[in-house]
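In line with agreed milestones, the collection of sequences with tokenised folds has grown. A representative record is reproduced below.
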Amino acid sequence: MPQNLDPATPSLANAAICSIAASLIPEPKNIAFIEADVKVITANESETFEKFRNINLGINRTEIDIKFELEMSSQKKKNFQIEAFKHRVVVDPKYAEKTWKILEHAIHEIYNHNASGLSFEELYRNAYNMVLHKFGEKLYTGLVSTMTSHLKEIALSIEASQGALFLEELERKWTEHNKALQMIRDILMYMDRTFIPSTHKTPVHELGLNLWRDNIVHTIKIQTRLRDRLLELVQRERSGEVIDRGLMRNVIKMLMDLGSSVYQEDFEKPFLRLSADFYRGESQLFIESCDCGDYLKKAEKRLNEEIERVSHYLDAKSEVKITNVVEKEMIESQMTRLVHMENSGLVNMLMNDKYDDLGRMYNLFRRVPNGLSLIRDVMTSHIRETGKQLVTDPERLKDPVDFVQRLLDEKDKNDKIIHLAFNNDKMFQNALNSSFEHFINLNVRSPEFISLFVDDKLRKGLKGVSEEDVETVLDKVMMLFRYLQEKDVFEKYYKQHLAKRLLSNKSVSEDAERSLILKLKTECGYQFTSKLEGMFTDIKTSDDTMQGFYAAMGQELGDSPSLAVHILTTGSWPTQLTTTCNLPPEILTVCDKFKTYYLGTHNGRRLTWQTNMGSADIKATFNKGQKHELNVSTYQMCVLMLFNNGDGLSYTEIEQATEIPTLELKRCLQSLACVKGKNVLRKEPMGKDIGEDDTFFFNDKFASKFYKVKIGTVVAQKESEPEKQETRQRVEEDRKPQIEAAIVRIMKARRVLDHNNIVAEVTKQLQSRFLPNPVVIKKRIESLIEREFLERDKDDRKLYRYLA
């Protein structure tokens, strides 16, 4: 019974209560008795029940007395109670049947589209009274029977429809049924809210859906026909035909409204089975007739079509299921064949920078298990093979700068692929880094070549380049540096090349030099770059020293040649073998004065001249008084100064006069006499090589359009084999104390450790600089045992103990 009703404005329910008595007046000869329910009402409903109390319900003038007992309390509100009838009530025995006939007629009229003449207020009253007077079961049973009868007639109408009209008729009848069901539910709302919950029966709307399912959708003639028609339309759409998507959406929505199990069993499962068969056959057809790129386009198109189909007329939950079918049949089952497809597979795409095809492959393969792993593995194999050919090709090893540039180009190429096609996926970035680290270290000269590349760029390659571009080049160099396992070898070569740039003042930018050292420091720590920074400090200190020298000794020097000395701290600069060289008297005098000055101002120091690392500017006069300023090395200056006292000198005479080492002397003479445009000397007999029987003359006919002429020393850009061995030996010697220090640190912390764990720990600690050889580690352990830093365990020879 509705609550909180405004007594001044009776509602439909109030009206129904007031009219109960009038509709229950019995015929004179037929008297029945009913007992009223006990009800509790609120005070604002009292007016309605006051009217209800005064109604006469019988010819024998038997009155119904409704007694209200008012229980008063000072703390509580007033409450009214209805007591049970004390007298029997006379009721028409045919009341229920008559009322149901009225409601049944209304249901027929609703289904026959004649509902406009019905009084829904009266129908609601009748349904309300039947439930109130315990005829709810009759009302519910009658409803089921009547609706079933109508639905059977509708089923016959749908079955009779032919061809394309079948779905249209089904959809039209479904729409009409829903409208009718809504009207019926409104009429029977009181039954829906009271009788049905108390008896645990199916609500009216759900009942209507279940009856439609059982009497329409699941009939033998309609169920199969409906499924086949829907699947046929899907297949026709896949073939390119245009179908009525609105009709499809409404019919499939009907199945969804009937319950998820109806949608799944009657449509979704057959749809997925049919789709799997369709795409299995289509993938086989495509793989035989298309290249990899075209196949991927077709697969992508089909996948998008299915996603679009779901959005138009399928249940959203079907998207995952149908896309899984397409992915399995068109991608997963064929992905190995696609990746390895000759002339169009993954390798071909990588080689030809097919970013669109690669991106499509990535987006499709990521949808299936192990798809991206397959791409990664094939890509890794390709990069490693390409890189191996690059670093082991003898022709490409002839030019170190070109060698490193090719590495950078290869890295840029693959970085671009990962950025544009693979969405910067970390998996592929890690695979690329791993591949580069693998093949760069296949060539033991990679550290030397990278240092030579840096040397070339910082000498001339970055001239006129913006700061941003300089930083870009240096960042790329650092990227290659990170791949090196023998970073200490790079350090050796870089230190040598940096020393030459600083001493000859050939660096294109001091800012670029310091920027690179800062990057190395960030990467490897202060210890790695401390000596490199010391080299810059020495250059600055040397400039200050020379200013002091000329300030103190300027008058004594007179017209002597100008001298610029770089004082190099032993240990900070690359170790150089001290080579003897007889300087010209004019130069030697100035050098002795500087030595006297320096040692006088710095106690306890010793100076050793490194003539092989110096340079000189000398003025020369040729035929017809033509003058040039020649920029030469110290060795070349010593040779040229000899020709002030004679026109022709043999190789042996030059060697004895200068005492320049044989190899350096031959390079020196070769650059002075055999380089076209720089040949200030003449050699007899003519030829490119220098022999001990050759004779050299001052070339009066030398001419150049430049006043300043730089004569470089003919040197191999790469080290000779003996030089390589020497550098390698120095590196190995430098590694020994580092390995020993790591062993002592580990053993001091662990106290007792077995051999294998020591090797593993040492390798882990030193891998940022180099990968120590286990054999070398073992030798260093033996050395530490001999010097009593460690001892072997008496029982287990593989166990070592630290000695404090």
Q: What stands out?
A: The chain is about 60% helix and 5% strand. The two ends are 96 Å apart (CA to CA).
